[in-house]
Amino acid sequence: MVNYPNGKKKTYVTQRTSAGGRGMNLEKDINTTNMFYLSIDKAVIHKKPTPVTIVSVDYPARSAAKITEAYFKLPSTTDYNGIYRAKYIDFEAKECASHTSFPLKSIHEHQIKHLQDVIRHGAIAFLIVKWTVFDETYFVKAEDIITFMKENERHSIPYTWFQTTGHLIPSTYVTPIDYLKIIDQLYFTLGGNHDKSK
Amino acid sequence: MVNYPNGKKKTYVTQRTSAGGRGMNLEKDINTTNMFYLSIDKAVIHKKPTPVTIVSVDYPARSAAKITEAYFKLPSTTDYNGIYRAKYIDFEAKECASHTSFPLKSIHEHQIKHLQDVIRHGAIAFLIVKWTVFDETYFVKAEDIITFMKENERHSIPYTWFQTTGHLIPSTYVTPIDYLKIIDQLYFTLGGNHDKSK
């Protein structure tokens, strides 16, 4: 139980955890991984704050400004960016609860446009998709997702496509989503499987 | 007057504007500039959302989730980042109302640490400081600010230092804070004044 400053308690929700004891929360796992990368000075990659539109703020005497009315806003970019081996890194992370396919509607159109934009400028851009049922997390190059969307009328991408075109991300206790391993293989290894999807 | 969905009207506040007609709002000017850069496909640089800690959210039937209690959080990184000419770009922007000196307390310690972190990994990192009294906006390399802080006990940086070590940012109607001009000179020009501060 966690006590919050407002005296409320957070209800503990039992989660199915994997054999490795990992929780189901992809965002938490990526943040843990990024904090570890930062702590060993391997990369500087952060999640952007959740965008909100603030409508009203109270300024009570002698205490912190309190936002009393705000709304969630659609993000215009992806959730994560930063720098690794002097390269600009940009990605979005999604959990998928299906057994069979990943719904493309979970990535917004302006996020796809953003990924295309940064790719043109030389970024390493990708998606991290966690298949919660299988407890498997795939690294997918943004280029491959974009090609799929152009070549297919489908509104979802089959699981088998992730198995063939994606890259299974390894996991350790300190780096639950060790995606830089995949980046090393794909972008920094001579003769790496950069062209797996071709 | 702008009408907001909640029926409230935004009060129009008269602002002192400069001879060039620019408003005093640095953030707005940088956003305008970044939107222009994006529109001509020159760079992809965005302001990160303001970080807030959300405490409670209402989910009224048939309408959008409403955040009813939230607080501003200290940012752990800088406000702006993105990609330009395949380089990772990272900066913070500050307005300064003084005639004489820029207070260093307006940059948080973890923001300085963040700038040091990204520099080590190969970023172009800097500060944009607008001296509102003079209507002058300077580009200052993060390295130069960090060196100043190491070599001086002062809690502020004199205006004259900005004149000698900083770089005055040009302004046009579509790019009110045309900072990529300075980046081109400092980082992409052979024989550019990269070492002005030395």
Please state how the strands of the largest beta sheet of chain A are arranged side by side.
1-4-5-7-8-10
**Spans of chain A with pLDDT under 50 lasting ≥5 residues?**
6-23
Q: What is the residue-averaged pLDDT of chain A?
A: 87
Largest sheet of chain A: 6 strands, mixed
| DSSP summary, beta strand count of chain A | 10
Q: Which sequence of SSEs, written as H and E, runs from N to C of chain A?
A: HEEEEEEHEEHEHEH
Q: DSSP helix count of chain A?
A: 5
Percent helix range of chain A: 25-40%
Distance between the termini of chain A: 49 Å
Quick structural overview:
Two copies of one chain form a homodimer. By secondary structure, chain A is an alpha+beta fold. Chain A is built from five helices and ten strands; from the N terminus they run αββββββαββαβαβα.
Structural features, described:
The structure is a homodimer of 198-residue chains. Chain A is an alpha+beta fold and 198 residues long. The first copy, chain A, is 26% helix and 28% strand. The first copy, chain A, contains five helices and ten strands; from the N terminus they run αββββββαββαβαβα. Chain A has helices at residues 26-39, 109-120, 142-151, 159-165, 179-187, and strands spanning 44-47, 52-58, 66-72, 80-84, 87-96, 101-103, 124-131, 136-141, 156-158, 167-168. Chain A has a six-stranded mixed sheet, sandwiched between helices. In chain A, strands 2-3 form a two-stranded antiparallel sheet. The first copy, chain A, has a two-stranded antiparallel sheet with strand order 6-9. Chain A is globular. The termini of chain A are far apart. The model of chain A is unreliable at 6-23 (pLDDT under 50). Chain A binds chain B through residues 4, 6, 38, 41, 43-44, 46, 48-52, 54-55, 64-73, 75-77, 81-88, 90, 114, 117-118, 120-123, and chain B through 4, 6, 8, 38, 41, 43-44, 46, 48-52, 54-55, 64-73, 75-77, 81-88, 90, 114, 117-118, 120-123.
